[in-house]
């Protein structure tokens, strides 16, 4: 009974924390500006009040503006990519197939009937990761500089980052591979021929994946490597299940994956704010090792590539 209670509390707490980003936007700029003003020397404060110089304007926080710009930009980029795929790339490939097999329209029709679903399914399987990369690039420009350093929890202090550039690159590449494989894993479990079970498992996967997306900025700036981030989610999965639930449900409601992608890209920056403000509930007794299979596969792929590189190097010598 106690385990059920802890699970429920963690789930509800995660769900509530995921919505905090919306409320944070209403007071965040004011709080950051007041904190910056309180740290300013008295002479600087007086000058800013009496002389009303331009530097005061430059110090003002504009997190709300940047978040709104990021949401609009993310949605526009994603919608544009979908339109290009649907109305430029697919028609071009179809025309090419028609030209190649023009002497036999039946063969051209059969080839396109096979290629079109394959191309569409491939595009649907990988749309979250490219979208995440675009969002990460846009959001990180202001998040780390303007927000994360000022809003990290008191116990973490200033951003710690990782010890070397090579470690940052390796961690980022490994993280992208794990996330891509985990996305494929979620789509595979959704195909289970058991009523509602496959969809439920897919929803759990997406909740944890979206939680990883949302908290990754915060944890990366705290110096956490990928294995620590994944272990933390697996060990406290009820909280992160609740945290990722709103975004996972919002993206699964639309029947069109175009609308679903736009919903994700628009709301994702707000969930980053929620992740930075949240304090996860700890202490779950039963870890959920959903990331372990893709981590094992990723490790095997990295070892294979490294061994191949070593063999090529030895041959060149």
Automatic annotation (TrEMBL):
| Cellular location(s) | Membrane
Alphabetically ordered keywords of this record: Membrane, Transmembrane, Transmembrane helix
- Top-rank taxon of the source lineage equals Eukaryota
The segment annotated Disordered runs over 38-57
User: How does this chain sit within the bilayer?
Assistant: Multi-pass membrane protein
Annotated GO CC locations: endoplasmic reticulum; membrane
The record's Pfam families line, in alphabetical order, gives: EI24
Transmembrane feature ranges? 63-89, 126-145, 165-184, 196-215, 235-250, 257-274
What's the main place this protein lives?
membrane
Q: Does the keyword Ubl conjugation apply?
A: no
Instruction: Offer one example of a GO biological process linked to this entry.
Output: macroautophagy
Please state which protein family the record places this protein in: Belongs to the EI24 family.
**Protein name from the UniProt record:** Etoposide-induced protein 2.4 homolog
């Amino acid at each position: 009974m106690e385990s059920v209670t802890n699970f429920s509390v963690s789930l509800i707490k995660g769900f509530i924390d995921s919505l905090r980003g919306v409320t944070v936007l209403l007071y965040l700029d004011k709080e950051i500006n007041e904190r910056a003003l309180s740290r300013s020397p008295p002479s600087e404060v007086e000058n800013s009040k009496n002389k009303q110089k331009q530097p005061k304007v430059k110090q003002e926080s504009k997190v709300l503006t940047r978040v709104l710009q990021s949401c609009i930009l993310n949605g526009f980029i994603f919608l544009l990519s979908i339109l290009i795929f649907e109305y430029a790339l697919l028609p071009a490939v179809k025309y090419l197939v028609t030209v190649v097999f023009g002497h036999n329209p039946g063969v051209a029709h059969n080839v396109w009937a096979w290629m079109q679903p394959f191309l569409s399914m491939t595009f649907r399987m990988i749309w979250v990761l490219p979208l995440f990369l675009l969002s990460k690039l846009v959001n990180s420009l202001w998040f780390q500089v303007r927000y994360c350093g000022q809003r990290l929890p008191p116990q973490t202090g200033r951003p710690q980052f990782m010890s070397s550039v090579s470690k940052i690159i390796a961690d980022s590449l490994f993280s992208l591979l794990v996330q891509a494989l985990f996305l494929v894993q979620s789509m595979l479990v959704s195909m289970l021929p058991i009523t509602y079970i496959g969809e439920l498992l897919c929803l759990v996967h997406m909740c944890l994946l979206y939680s990883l997306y949302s908290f990754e900025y915060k944890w990366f700036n705290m110096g956490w490597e990928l294995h620590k981030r994944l272990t933390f989610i697996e060990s406290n999965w009820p909280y992160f299940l609740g945290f990722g639930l709103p975004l996972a449900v919002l993206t699964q409601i639309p029947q069109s994956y175009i609308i679903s992608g736009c919903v994700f890209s628009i709301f994702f920056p707000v969930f980053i704010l929620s992740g930075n403000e949240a304090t996860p509930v700890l202490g779950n007794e039963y870890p959920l090792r959903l990331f372990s299979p893709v981590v094992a596969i990723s490790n095997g792929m990295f070892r294979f590539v490294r061994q191949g590189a070593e063999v090529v190097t030895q041959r060149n010598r």
